[in-house]
Amino acid sequence: MPIDPSIAIGAELPGQEFSWTPSDVQLYHLGIGAGARPLDPHELRYLDDAEPQVLPTFATVVASIHATEAPRVSFPGVEIDLAKVVHGTQEVTVHQPIPASGSARTTTRIAEVWDKGKAAVIVQESSTVALDGSPLWTARSSIFARGEGGFGGERGPSQSVDLPDRAPDAEVISPVLPQQALLYRMCGDRNPLHSDPDFASAAGFPAPILHGLCTYGIVCKAATDTILDGDSNRVKGFRARFAGVVFPGETLRTRIWREGSQLLLSATVPERDESPALADVVLTVA
Predict the structure, then answer these.
(1) Is the terminal CB of the chain with fewer CB neighbours within 10 Å at N or C?
(2) Total count of domains within the chain
(3) pTM of the prediction?
(4) CATH code, domain carrying 131
(5) Catalytic site residue 189?
């Protein structure tokens, strides 16, 4: 049986210890589109050679940024074909600005396994600290495994963010380069779904799709640049649900509403009748 909730829920995954450099930060920022305004000093803060500012979404890739092999969905009580898996949700909360270089340790556990009938949702929670023990960030994410439901588990909660019934306070159009997925995969996510047309076709897609976490980073950067004057240190947390696919070469439309200490966002693809890309998106301002 691919999923055994009695084994999976609460299981601790192997800890990870890792380091990063300003070059890793630069690569990540380039992977989500930084540098498109190469004469803008605000933009160049993301790409400084010595002390680039760091978007909190960097936390989603830093532990595996040097990986060169496709990931495996193999955890205690969970064994799933990679072609069946897409990202469901992602949330990152930073406890201090992420430094441009450093070393850290992450511990992760499987928090929940939900049975959605035709699919399963596996939720992971992780905590990352510097090697001196000071907290850096916490994260919660889920993966959606098609065809792996029906094992008799609980369906789980359904949560959504209601957007204000008014025009957005800002709107941003972000082009997605034709080679964006090929560039972003250099950040450690070598899933062939994002690079191999045959693999993507076997998984049910007409072409390789953009990494959900690339969309996640693009939208966080768009809101940071537009509302927070490009100051990534003001971003305390960022969460989203992956609501649809984005193909390289398309564009993303990010709509932003200010609501107190939060920014509520939506991200859609104009070329496909505003097909949703991210939903239930909340950026918390420090």
Answers:
(1) N
(2) 1
(3) 0.93
(4) 3.10.129.10
(5) yes
